[in-house]
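User: Please go through the entry that follows and flag anything odd:
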Amino acid sequence: MADVEEHPFAVGLVYEDCFFHPVLCTYLDVDGDEMAGISLIDGSGPRGCSLRFCAPVPLSIPQVVWIREHFADYVERRTAGQTLTSILPSA
């Protein structure tokens, strides 16, 4: 379980949700162990995650752009267990 007190998230930042969508965070409740936002892939939302159990991953804007351009391949590789750093090209 992740330590909820030490998270890098805030409203306005982007994270990867449980379904590997880059999501713009629009809601964060650390005490309630909940965050939500809008998918930057298809505009769906709210897309909710638990800080503790979903293990959302913070993303940079260049990472989001790359993920959008390669989304089907990205999801296939993430679903197969590859890490974000092993998929994305070096900066």
Summary: The CA atoms of residues 55 and 69 lie 23 Å apart. The beta strands are 14-16, 22-29, 34-39, 47-49, 57-59.
